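Team,

Forwarding the record for the chain on the shared tracking sheet. I've put the sequence and predicted structure together so nobody has to dig through attachments.
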Amino acid sequence: MDGAFDVMHYGHMNAFRLGRSLGTYLIVGVNSDASITRCKGPPLMKDSERLTMVEGCKFVDEVVPDCPYIMTAEYLEYIFNTYEVDYVVHGDDPCIVDGKDVYAAAKKRGRYRSIPRTEGVSTTDIVGRMLLMTKDHHFLRRSRGNSVGSAVSVSGMLDGGPEEEDCRRGEDDDSDNEILNEESGYYGRTPLGHQSKFLTTTNLLRLFSAGVKPPEEGMKVVYVDGAWDMFHCGHVEFLKEASKRGDYLIVGIHGDAAVNKRRGGNLPLMNLHERVLSVLGCKYMNDVLIDAPLEITPDMIASLKISEVVHGTESDSSCIENPADRYRYPKEMGILRQIPSPSHFKLMDIIHRIQKKQEEFQKKIERKKKAEREWFENKYQPAINGSHANGVQN
């Protein structure tokens, strides 16, 4: 299987899972920046960033860098001979460049297999959500001491402007108990993650949980928590380091309301289900705690048999908060450790890149959304029309 895997998400992970289910060993080729640029324009993420994401997926056995975007007969022969590949796999949506099928050579040789596309999620959709967070976009911010919101721009949040002051929590500040929008229960606007059309089933959660087992007696259990919004290469590299601290890594994932409370605006970009699938797809975790509490209590530590709680030196949040509040009990118990974050990459790095080319991405999104609608209609409209016809006959 190969691809650009630009702004990689749980839909790509599911494709890897499906691809691997066709055999016993999955090799994933990652297209180079240069080949992507020639065929469809420069990618949003760099080579190293995209490689980190693919290498960090638990459904991937081996990664081949610098793959050409168009799979020629010569390159196909090289792949078959060098890596002993039996089949080339891709989603059932067409991949056309300059009017030609990218996988024509593999299909001609009878060594091509398709997998169903993961419906309800796409890079187009996710980038579209981030496009809503432009420098001209405004959201409501609560004011300290009352529930009245004032309009501020996301640019301030991104650039570390004065609105960071409202993220600071003092010991006497009871603003955590305030709800700006009583109807929705969120502090800013409704999170962009609620725009998701992805349908999360217990079956998919079970499939993504493959390999998850409880810790064995005597294992050192390490706990780390966060939002893990738009699960990215910075997250992957940090979880890799955190996993080295013990034998079993539990990753706590905060709920939408908790993330919105800490970050405000219309975050998180991905809802809780999407973020859970993203972390479950990472090879460095052993289990996840869904809708994890912000405060880590003694009861929680005892129940999960946590030996060490870790947090990094970098965060996606622009808020300046005192971790002593959330980590008070682990600190008192002497099990709290801060470890250096191996990457400075953050969610806002992706958003900044999109903002720099907002108009270009907007046009690209519109084209891709049109193509996706057409693909969906071609796939399902005949069945819908057939059911309507049967209904009329009956």
